[in-house]
Design brief:
By secondary structure, this protein is α+β, with helices and mostly antiparallel strands. Helices cover 59% and strands 11% of the residues. The protein has 7 helices and 4 strands, in the order H-H-E-E-E-H-H-H-E-H-H. Helix 2 packs across helix 7 (124-157). It is elongated, with a radius of gyration of 20 Å. 15% of the residues are buried.
């Protein structure tokens, strides 16, 4: 399958792909804000610069485009046409970098979350619900920790 664009046209098209404030990021951010969930955007203090960082709960959210982050990669890479070796190398490196950044975040006690662009566009409320569920779980873990601390204090008093 050959490219229908000239190299100049392809270069121009690719140069217009944004790295932040993409439509999927904005859609998810607005939905989270509407639910009262506050966040930092493009948080540079964390590995991978998450698109959305909920610092209160240490949640790092990434809004991943299907092409650049390898959605259905084993099938998609068979269909690549023009400059095949370049794209395979680039996308597989992106996927490896995503895994590395997730591991770094986990070591820092952050929880990484990834949403695909189509998932955000078609099921925004489900994505927000997943974030709300995670926040609830993290709150319960904090509460359990507080109860354990209180039990330890009571034991020390006895």
């Amino acid at each position: 399958m050959s490219d229908v664009m000239t190299p100049e046209q392809r270069s121009r098209a690719m140069s217009h792909i944004k790295g932040k404030d993409t439509s999927i990021e904005v859609l998810l951010r607005k939905a989270l804000w509407h639910k009262g969930i506050r966040y930092r955007k493009n948080y540079k203090k964390l590995p991978g610069t998450p698109d959305i960082a909920i610092t209160k709960y240490k949640i790092a959210i990434f809004c991943d485009s299907e092409f650049f982050h390898g959605y259905n990669w084993e099938i998609k890479k068979q269909k690549l046409g023009h400059n095949r070796e370049y794209w395979i190398k680039k996308i597989e490196r992106n996927m490896a970098r995503d895994r590395e950044n997730d591991f770094k975040l986990i070591v820092m006690d952050w929880v990484p979350m990834h949403f695909w662009g189509q998932e955000i566009q078609k099921r925004t409320e489900e994505c927000v619900g997943a974030v709300e569920d995670l926040i609830f779980e993290l709150q319960m873990m904090q509460f359990d920790g507080m109860i354990e601390d209180m039990r330890d204090c009571v034991e020390d008093i006895k």
